[in-house]
Design a protein that fits this description.
The chain is α+β, with helices and mostly antiparallel strands. It folds into 3 domains: 67 residues; 94 residues, OB fold (Dihydrolipoamide Acetyltransferase, E2P) (Beta Barrel), CATH 2.40.50; 82 residues, 2-Layer Sandwich (Alpha-Beta Plaits), CATH 3.30.70. Helix content is 33%, strand content 31%. It contains 8 helices and 12 strands. The strands form 3 sheets. Strands 6-5-4-7-8 form a 5-stranded antiparallel beta sheet. A hairpin with a 4-residue loop joins strand 10 and strand 11. It is flat, with a radius of gyration of 19 Å.
């Protein structure tokens, strides 16, 4: 039997639906193969776990790892390497942001992006972490990429900075004339169903995939993201949703930078 811990995470009120989505995907993969799904769930950090058994378990595991990513060991880290992850525990400390890039413990290990790095990269030299995160909508479960800058093997710690891809995304969103609604912990089908039932499908210009179950709803120019939130919020109770409104981001940035 092959046991996998995937990079993708299932969390929030739709955790069961996300796991069911995975179950359907795995079932489809093994349909014509000599392999079967034994168990599917999550670990303590919400990473999806899959147990596959059969002659083709190695092949199926490789397909899942390619599709959903896999966790790594601390020893696999190297400076200047870039990893995808999700922000965690935003606001719990004031000295930086932590990013879960799927490094297994014990102990658990998240990459710290120190406040001084954020200030330098985002040209906000005097801003607090709270101001930076609220201004640029840096929230829990937001997918980002980080570049490793320092590894402390003795203390099992690592620090980094936001990768260029993430900085470019922030800049692109801030300079866009489309408001966005971030929806985290859902499938695209669930979001589309909520939009259809609320009569707002035509108000969304594009549904952008940020992570495995994280999306950005790019509104049409004539549509306010707050209106979409008010419409689909009751249909997606408990799902983390955040407004990214370029005009407000620009005003806050200019006031606090």
């Amino acid at each position: 039997m092959r046991h996998l811990i995937l990079h993708a995470q299932a969390y929030g009120p739709y955790r069961r639906q996300l796991l069911n989505h995975m179950r359907i995907d795995v079932t489809e993969i093994v349909r014509e193969l000599s392999a079967s799904l034994v168990k599917l769930g999550t670990d303590k950090r919400n990473h999806i776990t899959v147990d596959i058994e059969g002659e083709d378990e190695e092949f199926v595991g490789n397909v899942l790892l390619q599709r959903y990513g896999g966790v790594s060991e601390f020893g696999a880290l190297s400076t200047d390497s870039t990893f995808r992850g999700q922000l965690v525990d935003v606001g719990k400390v004031g000295y930086g942001l932590y990013c879960d890039i799927g490094i297994m413990g014990p102990p658990k290990m998240d990459v710290l992006v120190p406040l001084h790095n954020l200030r330098s990269q985002l040209s906000m030299p005097k801003s607090s972490l709270r101001t930076i995160s609220s201004t640029l909508v840096l929230v829990d479960h937001l997918p980002v990429e980080v570049r490793i800058t320092e590894i402390d093997s003795a203390h099992h710690k690592t620090t980094g900075e936001l990768a260029e891809s993430t900085l470019s995304r922030i800049k692109r969103w801030a300079g866009d004339d489309h408001q966005r609604l971030l929806v985290l912990g859902c499938t695209k089908n669930i979001i589309e169903d909520a939009l259809t039932k609320s009569g707002h499908s035509q108000d969304i210009y594009q549904i952008e995939k940020l992570g495995h179950f994280e999306f950005s709803l790019r509104c049409k120019r004539s549509t306010r993201a707050s209106g979409i939130l008010a419409a689909i919020g009751p249909r997606l109770k408990g799902v983390p949703m955040h407004l990214f409104i370029p005009e407000e981001v620009g005003e806050r940035y200019n006031a606090k930078a």
